[in-house]
Amino acid sequence: QVQLVESGGGQVQTGGSLTLSCAAAGTRDITVMGWYRQAPGNEREWVATITNSGSTHYTNSVQGRFTISRNNAKETMSLQMNNLKPEDTAIYYCWAYSSYWGQGTQVTVSS
After folding, report:
1. Which residues pair with residue 90 across a beta bridge?
2. Which residues of 10-42 are buried (b: 16+ CB within 10 A; e: fewer)?
3. Do residues 81 and 20 make contact, with C-beta atoms less than 8 angstroms apart?
4. Edge-to-edge strands of the sheet including 66-71?
5. How far apart are CA 25 and CA 60, in angstroms?
6. Tell me, what's the pLDDT at 44?
7. Strand partners, 94
8. Which residue from 56, 76, 80, 104 could staple onto 91, CB 3.0 to 4.6 Å apart?
9. Are the C-beta atoms of residues 102 and 94 closer than 8 Å to each other?
């Protein structure tokens, strides 16, 4: 049984930092996990993924600013977000292969 619960969202100013966390029960055997985001009126877009062995990939717009991490033993996943921009404003979702989703956490970046 897999359960994903996000936390850590909030409002920050442009250039600020925020760390999102995902309590990911039952995910130790899941090969790929990641983060997606969706702004109102927009499609849900992929942000970052991480494999069970620690291999990471990022969408170009967050490369160099965001860092995804995963602790298999503790069944947790995080997204460290630095130098935030207004374009990062969205609901951020924790995801696990193939179709598990958290409820989302709101991130708002003010200019």
Report:
1. 107
2. eebeeeeebebbbbbeebeebeebbbbbeeeee
3. yes
4. 3-7, 18-25, 76-81, 66-71
5. 29
6. 97
7. 35
8. 104
9. yes
User: Residue 34: which residues within 8 A CB-CB, separation 6 or more?
Assistant: 46, 47, 48, 49, 50, 68, 95
As averages over each run of 10 residues, the pLDDT of the chain (111 residues) reads 97 98 96 97 97 96 98 95 98 97 98 92
Prior bond of 110 cis (ω within 30°)? no
What is the 3-state secondary structure of the chain? CCEEEEECCEEEECCCCEEEEEEEECCCCCCEEEEEEECCCCCCEEEEEEECCCCEEECHHHCCCEEEEEECCCCEEEEEECCCCHHHCEEEEEEECCCEECCCEEEEEEC
